[in-house]
Amino acid sequence: MADVRSTTPNLGLIKYSRGHPVTDVDLATNMDTLDDAFQAVVKVAKGGLAAGAADAFAFAWQNPEAVAILVQRVIVDVVTAGGTATSILDVGVSDTATGTAADIIDNLDLNAAAVTDHLLVAGTGVGGVHKLGAMGGTNDYITGKILIEKADDLIGKYYIEYMLV
Known about the structure:
By secondary structure, the protein is mainly beta. 12% of the residues lie in helices and 39% in strands.
């Protein structure tokens, strides 16, 4: 094995580890370890909620990653209520941007300004981790669909915490 000092003289602080020369193999191993640590980082996606009629989508988020992900938390922050007493939002995993599901949040009241965390709500989707396929694959969307009545005044955001599989 080549000594790093002979092949990469400008590495500065990582040329020595505990007083011993670091080899190219050591660097490759360390880079793999760093890559594994990066892959384990929790990422957060966020976006705005769109106002709309009944059966419109407040949001449709597609997994941006080339690999499957584990979604560990979904938060919906309704800043301004939708304006119709019976308007609700269902949030779930879907195969398309226009699919409907309620496996994450079921019947969120859109006529109340509030923060809803899927880990804390009762009903379908309470807690739990949801697996999404890689971008372009099966079940690679999370959608939020407005149901029952319109939510014309809706203003807010959604947050999706996930990690790579």
